[in-house]
Structure formats: C-alpha cells, structure tokens
Amino acid sequence: MSDKVADGTPMGKPVPFRGGGFLPRSRKIVAPILFIGLVAFWEWGARTGFISPLILPAPSEAFEAFKNLLSSGLLWQHLAASLQRLLIGWFCGTLLGVIVGTMIGLFSVARSGLQPLVSAIFPIPKIALLPLFIIWFGIGEGSKVATILFGTFFPTVIATYGGIDNVDRGLIRMGQSFGLSRMSIIRKIILPGALPAILSGARISAAIAIILLVAAEMIAAEFGVGAYILMAGSLMATDQLITGVAILSCLGLIFAWLIGRAEKYFLKWR
C-alpha cells in the first residue's frame, strides 16, 4: 500500500491543532516591562528637561510626596474616608442594579415599565446631579454616597438584563422539558448564564464609582483622595497631585483584581 495520497502528500503527517478558539494567553511579564519602561522614560524626560517639571514632575518626586503623606498619617485618613464612601455606594448601587435588572429580564411588566426609564436616565451625567443630591441629602456623606450609588446602579441594571436576554433559550426549553420549576430554571440556568455579563458590569461600575468618588469629594470634603487632589491642584503641587492620581489608579487595580478573582471562582464552568 502506498504511503502517499493522490496529490503526493505523505500520509501520517502531523496536523497542527486549530481548535484553540482564539483564547488569549496571559503574558504576565509584558505588563511589568511596559510599566517599568514608561516610568523610566518619564523619569529620564523630567530630569533632562524633555518634560517640563512644572507640567509633569518626575516619578521620584511623586514618590517623595507619597512618603511624606504616609509619614504624616494623612494617607490613612484620606483612604479610610474614600473607601467608606466608595464601598457603601458601589455595593448598594450594584445590589439594587442586579435586583432591578433581574426583574426587567424576567418579568414583562417590569420590562415594559422600567426599561424605558432606565434608558432615559442612564445617559444623564451623574456629576451634573450632584448639586441636586446636596439639596436632597445635605453636603455631608449622604450626597457623596448617593452620587456613587446612582452612578453605579444604571450600568449594573443594563448589564444584568442584557446578560439574561443573552442566555441560550435552548437551555431554558431543555429545563422546561425536564419539568424544572420556574424558580429552578432561574437559579440553575438563567442566573449562572447571566453571571459573566453581571461581573463585567460590576467591573465597569467600579471604575465609574471611582470617577464619581473624586467628583463628590471635591465638594466640601475635609478628607478623601479627591479632596487631597483638589488641595494639591489649588497649591500647584503637581507632585502631590500625581500621588493622588496614583492612589486612585491603585484602587482601580485592586477592584479589577478582586472582580477577576470572583470571575475565576464563579465562572469555572466557562
């Protein structure tokens, strides 16, 4: 028997695997290299005058400002105030958003009544409503938490009912054909199927919460990262300003890491 097919190609030639599904692979070394390279270029530019220190101080100067903030004890006061507002506002807004989004996704009456309302209010810049919240809740913590809650509520609602809408209807019909109750279908099929979209919405709403936190703290807040940044800008202390921005960036990274861990835990089936 010939070991070649009709076109002359040898039989038994290994074929490379083509079923990877475009799955991205993590290259953990890339991010640190890129970060170190950017910081090194920034430091070089600031020291050589290529970047004006009045516009953008060197990273070493920002690090000195961070050490002074840490040694003075003010860092923990600013962080404690900001984290309290951020966690309360984000958690309450996300929880309410998941509840309302689930109602819109599952019940026709809720969809007919609430979906147009959500679509109408969602595009409104939430920072523009901050003066109204101050009138309603006062200039203290209530208005700041309400701003964050309101801003995180709507993205979560849209992500939740969008995730429910995208659940494979074949799986739902399969559950019905096996005699599962409506509650079992919701608990075992719909909510697990919508969870990737819900967690993606939580990631987006966390970023929005940090943005609104800064805006809220720039109005009559004694402590908070936003208040620290506002004070630094008023004093033209750009090194302190960069320090405050770096702290916000670290908060965003921590939130993203926590949500990423939640995705790995809850979405093992994917």
Summary of the model, kept short:
With 270 residues, this protein is mainly α.
| Number of separate structural domains | 1
What integer value in Å does the Rg equal? 25 Å
Separation, N- and C-terminal Cα atoms: 46 Å
CATH class: Mainly Alpha
Give me the secondary-structure category: mainly alpha
pLDDT averaged residue by residue:
85
**What is the string of helix and strand elements?**
HHHHHHHHHH
Number of helices: 10
CATH topology: MetI-like fold
Give the strand content. under 5%
How helical, in percent, are the residues?
over 70%
CATH H-level name... which superfamily?
A: MetI-like
Structure, described:
This protein has a single domain, classed as MetI-like (MetI-like fold). Helix 3 runs antiparallel to helix 8, helix 6 (141-165) runs antiparallel to helix 8 (182-217) and helix 8 packs antiparallel against helix 10. The longest helix has 36 residues, at 182-217. With 270 residues, it is mainly α. The chain has helices at 30-48, 59-72, 74-106, 108-121, 130-137, 141-165, 169-177, 182-217, 225-234, 238-266.
Keywords, please?
270 residues; 0% strand; MetI-like fold; MetI-like
Write the layout of secondary structure elements.
Layout: H1 30-48, H2 59-72, H3 74-106, H4 108-121, H5 130-137, H6 141-165, H7 169-177, H8 182-217, H9 225-234, H10 238-266
InterPro entries: MetI-like (IPR000515), MetI-like_sf (IPR035906)
Pfam families: BPD_transp_1 (PF00528)
Transmembrane segments: 29-46, 87-110, 117-139, 145-164, 185-202, 208-229, 241-260
